[in-house]
């Protein structure tokens, strides 16, 4: 199974229009406020930090490059060729490798696993953007990437975050400038019940090893200058 052409085209259109400037995209916050905070919860559960680390849904690679300074072999994987173009352009030294990947296609994940072996995988805000029929296939593909030794860290906006986003989009001045392109390309976050995330993972044969809550920091601000943060939940999973 692979993602629909509508979904693929939506992401390609979004990243083709997006500026290559750091922080220009709604979720492209500084790594110290995103991946760095997540890594503090992820690292204690890694059975082998020397395994390749895959940043799944890497977008323009801001978090990927952060990981590449801390792990020996990092791969940024994304559905969008335009996103990967931004990532490679921002990484002239080649700190990380980049790979186009349909994460809802288990066969593609198995091919990458054959090349890399077991891997640790970081997934930030990907599952909630998937169309409903793609969520379990994505979890199945994630399990294929992990193999027996890998660990996954997933962080997703909680159900409460959808209310925050809807309020922002429907404000008197319209959606904030960095949120507007997301909505215009039909990438409105889906409603994934908080309890569904661990269930997708369990159905893929994985065990939830840890979980918690953290604010998901964005690059956008309210009119009064407050940075917009979305409630989110995180889980660490792998083969027990």
Automatic annotation (TrEMBL):
Domain Methyltransferase span(s) in chain numbering: 54-150
One GO biological process term: methylation
UniProt source species: Streptomyces tendae
GO MF annotation: an example: methyltransferase activity
Protein name according to UniProt: Class I SAM-dependent methyltransferase
InterPro entries for this protein: Methyltransf_25, SAM-dependent_MTases_sf
Sorted UniProt keywords: Methyltransferase, Transferase
